[in-house]
TrEMBL record:
Gene Ontology, cellular component aspect: plasma membrane
InterPro entries documented for this protein: PAP2/HPO, PAP2/HPO_sf, UPP_Pase
Pfam families, per database record: PAP2 (PF01569)
Domain Phosphatidic acid phosphatase type 2/haloperoxidase, first and last residues per copy: 54-161
CDD domains in the record: PAP2_BcrC_like
Membrane recorded as keyword: yes
One function term, GO molecular function aspect: undecaprenyl-diphosphatase activity
The UniProt record lists the keyword Membrane: yes
Name of the protein: Bacitracin transport permease protein BCRC
Transmembrane segment boundaries: 22-44, 51-77, 97-116, 123-140, 146-164
Keywords: Membrane, Transmembrane, Transmembrane helix
Length: 180
């Protein structure tokens, strides 16, 4: 099923070639938009934004570590390295594609933004889904790589959302820049 779903999405790039530049742009460059948003939130003066960023970055660190551990137990090369007739739109070296780091990063931060803000942050979730989808479209990940990355990112975002505010030096007043 993983390969069949990959073929459906990746083959769409052959049929709808006009979308390929947008998919490559999203797959490669949306990460810079996310980084800029994290910096804006980090340095904004709105209460809770620093706590949100700290929570998201802690979750990201844990999710990436979990992803690296998962990769030690399950390894597969990118679709373009193992399957014939893949519509490969992004040049990259062959390595383990499981789980998708881009998807871990996006889902961790997008879910963190949603948990803390819940206002207009569904757009970050949509962008995270688009990043994952575009990585399949571009031929560099299987759907399972994306699904596991999304699950890891989301789970650690929630765990961090619950745990980080309970840490004494991470209280909202300290991270909001207020004097105690």
């Amino acid at each position: 099923m993983n390969i069949e779903l990959f073929r459906i999405i990746n083959d769409a790039g052959k049929e709808f070639e006009v979308l390929n530049p947008a998919m490559v742009f999203i797959a490669n460059n949306a990460i810079y938009l996310l980084a800029a948003a994290v910096l804006v939130y980090l340095f904004s003066r709105k209460p809770g934004n620093r706590l949100m960023v700290v929570s998201g970055l802690a979750a990201l660190l844990l999710a990436e570590m979990a992803g690296k551990i998962a990769a030690m137990f399950y390894s597969n090369y990118q679709p373009f390295a193992t399957l014939a007739d893949v519509n490969q739109l992004i040049d990259m070296e062959v390595n383990n594609s499981f789980p998708s780091d881009h998807t871990i990063i996006f889902f961790t931060m997008a879910v963190t933004f949603w948990l803390f803000k819940r206002k207009h942050t569904y757009l970050w979730i949509l962008l995270a889904v688009m990043v994952g989808f575009s990585r399949i479209w571009a031929g560099v990940h299987y759907p399972a790589d994306i699904a596991v990355g999304a699950m890891l990112g989301s789970a650690f975002a929630y765990l961090s959302y619950v745990m980080i505010p309970k840490v004494k030096f991470m209280n909202k007043n300290n991270l909001a820049g207020k004097e105690m």
